[in-house]
């Protein structure tokens, strides 16, 4: 993925995380990175260096809660949405969708010369 795409992804990362957690009850970090990669057929990848600060910020905002579980001898930290997280997910997804639609309109403009 190009550097420009990485910048675009970084700007919408919190919305992507909220959407994934809205669709699933809980996920751990690596699972989030793999789901994004799978859903975009590898076109988008989220690095741990971008993901974990975004998760911690959402947690600090009170949008995520965490739960630690031992799975096959390994400790996993699962993230899930709080009640406020569900509200914010709907709001931020709606905002990003509207932005993308407006961007699409602008990108599809025909030259007027």
UniProtKB/TrEMBL annotation:
It holds the Pfam family PadR. It comes from the Bacteria. Residues 17-90 form the Transcription regulator PadR N-terminal domain. Transmembrane segments: none annotated. InterPro entries: Metal_resp_DNA-bind_regulator (IPR052509), Tscrpt_reg_PadR_N (IPR005149), WH-like_DNA-bd_sf (IPR036388), WH_DNA-bd_sf (IPR036390). This is PadR family transcriptional regulator.
